[in-house]
Structure formats: C-alpha cells, structure tokens
From TrEMBL:
The keyword RNA-binding does not apply. It comes from the Bacteria. The chain crosses the membrane at residues 15-36, 98-119, 139-160, 172-194. Residues 61-199 form the DUF4396 domain. Pfam families: DUF4396 (PF14342). This is DUF4396 domain-containing protein. It comes from Terribacillus saccharophilus. Keywords: Membrane, Transmembrane, Transmembrane helix. InterPro entries: DUF4396.
C-alpha cells in the first residue's frame, strides 16, 4: 500500500522510498499508520501540471519517529539479509549459530544503518567527514536497536523455543517482533540525541 501510494506522492528524500516500505514490512499496522500520518507530510503531491509540495511542521515526537526510522530500517535490512547468509553458509561462533547470527547481522545492520543515515542527511557524494558524521550521529541508536532485537531473539531462541532457523515462518515472526522491540529501544536514544542537538530532527 505504501509503495502504491508513492505513485501519487513523491518523497523529498529518496532514501524514504526504502525506509517507509521497510517500516511497513516489519511494523505492519503502526508502520502503515505512521506513513499516512507522518510520511505524507514530507511528500510532494504529483499531478499532471506540477508537483505540489505538502509541508507541515511535525510535532517533536514525530520528528524523532522519522529519525528512528532511518537507523531501524537499515538495521532491519541488515538483519533480514544476515540471517539467511549465516544459515545457508553454516557459519558458527564458539559452536553457536546464534552468535554467528548476531555477529553478521550486527555488521550488516551497522553498515546499512549508516548508509540510510548518510542519505537521510541529504548527502549525495561520498565524503570522509560526512561519513564520519553519519557514524557519529547514528551509532548509538543503531546499537540500541540491536540490543533490543538481539535480546528478544536470544529469549526466543533459547527460552521460548528450542532453536529457531530462517527456514521457518516462526523464525521470521519472532524476528518481526524483535525488530519492533528494537525500534522501541532505539526511539528514546534518538529522542535524547535530537533533544541535545547531537542528531538533526527529520
């Protein structure tokens, strides 16, 4: 539904064409509501003659929400790519597939999260100082997301169920819940960072 809506609404930041569908994917009901409530405020309405930009100042909680979507979408994408790689490659750390999952997913999530933040800052050309700014800006919120997500997946893997693997629907359902929890643990970190001026509001 979000992707279909893009046909009549253009996002001002191109990275949001990935971010909003990702939010809708793992945060289905609230993510869809958030797009129509918040995402459309940052869009341009497309008509035959010209683009009409719809702009409205967002409340602070919405600015923080959009800031959180950048790192969380990058993290989610890294996690969704990393889990199958570890499973199909048979990777382990200290004899544990779960630890290998965490390691590979964290690396990919961190990389994608920084890229999402980088383009969320409006950067188009690679620049060492800009990349450093993106890392400095988003590192804490990325780590907060992964702590929440990994914490739940550890419980799901070791306590709730006797092992989970990416070739099952249950794994991805638990991963979806874990990503929602990751968003929740990342949100207050983003709130503090935006409030203190360490991260720009979206």
């Amino acid at each position: 539904m979000i992707v279909f809506d893009f046909r009549s609404r253009r996002q001002m930041m191109k990275i949001m064409y990935i971010v909003w569908p990702m939010i809708g994917l793992y945060f289905p009901i609230i993510g869809l509501w958030a797009y129509y409530k918040i995402g459309r405020k940052d869009s341009m309405k497309v008509n035959k003659k010209h683009d009409q930009m719809q702009h409205a100042d967002k409340p602070f909680w919405q600015q923080v929400f959009v800031s959180t979507t950048h790192c969380s979408s990058g993290c989610a994408l890294g996690d969704m790519i990393g889990a199958p790689i570890v499973f199909w490659a048979g990777l382990t750390i200290a004899g544990s597939t779960l630890y290998a999952d965490f390691a590979v997913e964290f690396i990919l999530a961190f990389l994608f999260g920084i890229v999402f933040q980088y383009y969320g800052m409006g950067m188009n050309k690679a620049n060492d100082s800009h990349i450093a700014d993106a890392i400095k800006t988003d590192a804490l919120s990325l780590i907060a997301f992964e702590i929440g997500m990994f914490g739940f997946m550890l419980l799901a893997h070791s306590v709730f169920f006797d092992g989970l693997h990416p070739n099952s629907v249950l794994f991805w359902f638990m991963m979806q819940i874990a990503m929602i929890i990751g968003f929740a643990t990342s949100y207050p970190v983003n709130w503090i960072m935006v409030k203190k001026g360490m991260k720009h509001a979206m």
